[in-house]
Amino acid sequence: MAMRSWRDRAAAHRLGQRIEALAEDGGMLRADGSLLATAASIADDFGISVHDAAYVAAARHSGAQLVSCDVRDLVSRGLAVLPVGAGSARSNL
């Protein structure tokens, strides 16, 4: 689909890499008391919602870089990177 619609082999390759990275994400992470306490602490420290902080806590717990389009609450505070920066962030894991 990417090749047919976009006619951009490089973009199709990057999309394939992103899909592969998602497939290798390690699966689901269950919310337990420790994760929720960490999320509450992050929310308090950064003045963000516990909902957003839960994503940050889950990423930290799994040793991953959080990727988000939420510039206001996550990216601007250094808690996540934009998708455009995700490739370079992944190499730092």
Describe the structure.
This protein is mostly helical. The chain has one domain (2-90). It has six helices and no strands. It has helices at residues 2-6, 9-23, 33-46, 50-62, 71-75, 86-90. Mean pLDDT is 84; it is low at 89-93.
SSE string = HHHHHH
The major pleated sheet works out as: none
Distinct helical segment count: 6
Q: Which stretches are poorly predicted, pLDDT < 50 over at least 5 residues?
A: 89-93
- The radius of gyration over CA amounts to 15 Å
The tally of strands reads: 0
- Helix-and-strand structural type: mainly alpha
First-residue to last-residue Cα separation: 30 Å
What characteristic shape results from the CA principal axes? elongated
What is the averaged pLDDT score?
84
The helix content is 55-70%
Strand content: under 5%
Number of domains: 1
Descriptors:
elongated, 93 residues, 0% strand, mainly alpha, 6 helices
Topology:
Elements lengths: L1 H5 L2 H15 L9 H14 L3 H13 L8 H5 L10 H5 L3
Helix pairs in contact: 3-4
